[in-house]
């Protein structure tokens, strides 16, 4: 099958959705410029014109309310933000207005809008350009939250998000844009709310989100070489979350590690753990473990950044500890970094 | 009582504006009367005194536009929809309301009728109207979108963001400032670091209009002019309409004796009451009082019927609690 990187897969999805449905439009700060949000919006303004792909004033709050008004009048806005941190300026509109507008108007009001934002680590992004904010949005009834991890999922989930009649927050990790994978050329949807098993295994269930899926798959291969088979599950949609495959896996393995790409405190990982704890109490062989960001603001300097973010090594060490195995020798193993960009296959 | 000028509108339109104005007033007088029954368990932010703004503007839009109201939503909702049946249903928390009682007084909406919503967050509806204006410009040229908000909302950042963006984007967006000088109990002079909002707004690429008549016909005519200009110029309109809130900021009681009120101001505005003004104009134009009483009697009876229907309708059952968190196909 044809291979594409994640950024081009997103771009192809936007192009196909705009061609399919004239009510779809893509906008946001910097969206039509020559860099095009990591390449994801490149060419759209030229192809569809300034009414369908346009820049905005630096006004995240009002331009989010704008999406609600346009959606109520039958359009399908895709509002795009180059950093998820900027979404904090949109929370009044997303949480007070958009998430509950359908509920407050009787349940039959379509609010078809997508808020796309880039999350996570670049290099030296520091405390205000690196957040994930998963639980900010998964906490709120009425919002769907999606965090794809593969080019194929990125394209198919974004198509589903655009076609959905509910508001969807679509969070893309910055480093994902470089990775390559098999992506069908034709337009397709991957339904929201369906998890994916990335690797079957029987020793331990590993639920990973967003970039941690990439780290988990990397860790899973290294662990398999030493005889440990973890079952890796990517929820893909963080809300509403498809818990059944996770519960089925934990019932099989008896062990759960959650590798979330976010802070742990009051986070999505705690929610998953609570659900699994309630449903699988009798079958768990040991306490659920979680890994995520250090409980600090994100530091800029690389030496501390490396301690702030978990990676495949963190996963390997945690799995070993959970299974009572001695730490393996990881000398010479390449872990991903800004310089060692991961490009696939996946 | 201020004497009204002779109508410049047709007799039918003058009467029709009065009917809507009277209906909005009568609905709220009914709320004042029956609120102590405690069947309407929702906070009330009453429009009383300010109705001419919503009625004048919504009737000028005449169905060819979308509006979003502030939390002081009653007059705007009633003027835009003319539907006091679902209004009283919603206030009573019944399944014949706009949202099965889930919205109450602060979130009234009827999207097919262009009533996009009402919001309890001051100023948050303003950018929503901008998005509707964008959609209308693409899909229904000539159709406008209006945001109603109080002068208090202009203290908020999103008001300025929306003013800037809609002017930059040249959208058919109408800003309707219901300028009653008050944010709850606080005067504009205590909140604003400039002397005149309209003078600041004039610096933007929009057309600015002012009204200080409390006259529904004057507001109607001004809005028509603004809409026509907006369609020809392709830039937003800003209407600053002076008005006056009769009742307490939240609740159905008079608060004329409260420390923030000014007796002269109160008397001045009640002397130019918008409903009384239009009634007087109709009588001066030759309409017989008995005919007007018949019109009013019919409206009164229809409102009583809506109240009775609301009280007879069921409250939502527990099955409706989770209904509509996500979109449901009708």
Account of the 3D structure:
- The complex is a heterodimer of chains A (346) and B (330).
- The mean pLDDT of chain A is 96.
- Chain A has twelve helices and 14 strands.
- In chain A, α4 runs parallel beside α5 (91-104).
- The longest helix of chain A is centred in the N-terminal third of the chain and has 15 residues, at 6-20.
- Chain A has helices spanning 6-20, 36-39, 44-48, 60-72, 91-104, 134-138, 151-163, 211-225, 244-253, 268-279, 302-308, 312-323; strands at residues 3-5, 24-27, 53-54, 76-81, 114-119, 144-146, 168-173, 180-182, 196-199, 204-208, 230-234, 237-239, 256-259, 289-291.
- Chain B has one domain (11-309): Thiamin diphosphate (ThDP)-binding fold, Pyr/PP domains (Rossmann fold).
- In chain B, a hairpin with a 2-residue loop joins β5 and β6.
- Chain A binds chain B through residues 51, 56-57, 59, 61-75, 77, 92-93, 96-97, 101-111, 141-142, 144, 165-166, and chain B through 66, 68, 98-100, 102-103, 107, 109, 111, 116-117, 119-121, 124-136, 138-139, 145, 157-158, 161-162, 164-165, 168, 323-330.
Task: Offer a concise description of the structure.
Chain A is an alpha/beta fold and 346 residues long. Chain A has helices spanning 6-20, 36-39, 44-48, 60-72, 91-104, 134-138, 151-163, 211-225, 244-253, 268-279, 302-308, 312-323, and strands spanning 3-5, 24-27, 53-54, 76-81, 114-119, 144-146, 168-173, 180-182, 196-199, 204-208, 230-234, 237-239, 256-259, 289-291. Chain A is built from twelve helices and 14 strands.
Keyphrases for this structure?
heterodimer; A: 346 residues; alpha/beta; Rossmann fold; 2 domains; 7-stranded mixed β-sheet; 5-stranded mixed β-sheet; 36% helix; B: 330 residues; 6-stranded parallel β-sheet; two-stranded antiparallel ribbon; 12 helices
Q: Would you list the SSEs of chain B in sequence order as H and E?
A: HHEHHEHEHEEEHHEHEHHH
The main sheet of chain B orders its strands as 2-1-3-4-8-7
Report the mean per-residue pLDDT of chain B as an integer.
96
Task: Tell me what portion of residues of chain A adopts beta-strand conformation.
Answer: 15-25%
Compute the number of helices of chain B. Answer: 12
Secondary-structure arrangement, i.e. CATH architecture of chain B: 3-Layer(aba) Sandwich
Top CATH class of chain B = Alpha Beta
Structure summary, number of beta strands of chain B = 8
For the record, the count of structural domains of chain A works out to 2
Please estimate the helix content of chain B. Answer: 40-55%
Q: Give start-end ranges of low-pLDDT stretches of chain A.
A: none
Gap from first CA to last CA of chain A: 13 Å
Total count of domains of chain B: 1
Q: What's the arrangement of strands in the largest beta sheet of chain A?
A: 3-2-4-5-7-6-12
CATH superfamily heading of chain B: Thiamin diphosphate (ThDP)-binding fold, Pyr/PP domains
Largest sheet of chain B, in brief, is: 6 strands, parallel
Helix/strand order of chain A: EHEHHEHEHEHEHEEEEHEEHEHEHH
């Amino acid at each position: 099958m044809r291979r594409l990187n994640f950024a081009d897969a997103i771009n192809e999805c936007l192009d196909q959705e705009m061609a399919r449905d004239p009510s779809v439009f893509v906008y946001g700060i910097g969206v039509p410029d020559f860099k095009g949000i990591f390449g994801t919006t490149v060419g759209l303004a030229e192809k569809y014109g300034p009414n369908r792909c346009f820049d905005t004033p630096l006004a995240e709050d009002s331009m989010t309310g704008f999406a609600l008004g346009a959606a109520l009048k039958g359009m399908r806005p895709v509002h795009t933000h180059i950093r998820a941190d900027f979404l904090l300026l949109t929370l009044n509109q997303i949480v007070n207005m958009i998430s509950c507008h359908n509920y407050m108007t009787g349940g039959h009001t379509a609010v078809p809008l997508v808020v796309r934002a880039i999350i996570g680590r670049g290099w030296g992004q520091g405390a205000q350009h690196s957040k994930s904010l998963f639980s900010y949005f998964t906490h709120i009834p009425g919002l769907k939250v999606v965090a794809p991890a593969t080019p194929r999922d990125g394209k198919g989930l974004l198509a589903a998000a655009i076609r959905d009649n509910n508001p969807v927050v679509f969070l893309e990790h910055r480093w994902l844009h470089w990775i390559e994978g098999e992506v069908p050329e034709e337009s397709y949807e991957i339904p929201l709310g369906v998890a994916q098993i990335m690797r079957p295994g029987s020793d331990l269930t590993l639920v990973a989100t967003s970039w941690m899926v990439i780290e988990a798959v990397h860790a899973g291969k290294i662990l398999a070489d030493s005889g440990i088979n973890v079952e890796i599950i990517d929820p893909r949609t963080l809300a509403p979350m498809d818990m059944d495959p996770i519960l089925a896996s934990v019932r099989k393995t008896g062990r759960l590690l959650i590798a979330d790409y976010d802070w742990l405190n009051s986070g999505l990982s705690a929610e998953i753990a609570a659900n699994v704890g309630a449903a699988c109490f009798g079958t768990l062989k040991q306490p659920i473990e979680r890994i995520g960001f250090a409980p600090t603001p994100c530091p800029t300097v690389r030496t501390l950044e490396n301690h702030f973010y978990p990676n495949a090594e963190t996963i390997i060490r945690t799995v070993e500890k959970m299974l009572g195995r001695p730490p393996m020798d990881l000398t010479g193993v390449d872990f991903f970094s800004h310089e060692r960009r991961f490009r696939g296959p996946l | 009582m201020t004497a009204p000028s002779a109508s410049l509108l047709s007799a039918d339109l003058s009467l029709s504006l009065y009917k809507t104005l009277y209906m909005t007033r009568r609905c709220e007088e009914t709320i004042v009367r029956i609120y102590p029954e405690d069947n309407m368990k929702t906070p009330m932010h009453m429009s009383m005194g300010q109705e001419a703004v919503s009625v004048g503007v919504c009737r000028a839009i005449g169905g060819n536009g979308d509006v979003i109201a502030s939390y002081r939503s009653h007059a705007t909702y009633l003027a835009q929809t003319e539907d006091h049946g679902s209004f009283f249903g919603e206030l009573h928390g019944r399944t014949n309301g706009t949202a099965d009682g889930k919205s109450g007084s602060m979130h009234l909406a009827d999207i097919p009728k262009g009533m996009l919503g009402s919001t309890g967050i001051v100023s948050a509806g303003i950018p929503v109207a901008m998005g509707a204006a964008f959609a209308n410009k693409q899909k229904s040229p000539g159709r406008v979108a209006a945001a109603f908000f109080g002068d208090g909302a202009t203290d908020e950042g999103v008001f300025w963001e929306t003013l800037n963006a809609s002017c930059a984007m040249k959208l058919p967006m109408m800003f309707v400032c219901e300028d009653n000088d008050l944010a709850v109990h606080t005067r504009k002079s205590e909140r604003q670091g400039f002397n005149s909002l309209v003078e600041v707004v004039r610096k933007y690429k929009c057309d600015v209009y002012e009204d200080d008549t409390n006259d529904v016909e004057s507001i109607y005519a001004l809005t028509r002019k603004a809409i026509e200009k907006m369609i020809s110029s392709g830039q937003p309109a800003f209407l600053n309409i002076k008005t006056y809130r009769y009742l307490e900021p939240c609740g159905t009681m008079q608060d004329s004796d409260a420390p923030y009120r000014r007796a002269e101001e109160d008397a001045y505005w009640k002397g130019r009451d918008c409903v009384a003004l239009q009634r007087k104009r109709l009588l001066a134009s030759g309409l017989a009082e008995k005919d007007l009483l018949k019109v009013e009697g019919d409206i009164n009876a229809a409102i009583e019927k809506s109240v009775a229907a609301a009280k007879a309708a069921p409250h939502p059952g527990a099955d409706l609690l989770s209904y509509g968190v996500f979109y449901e196909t009708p």
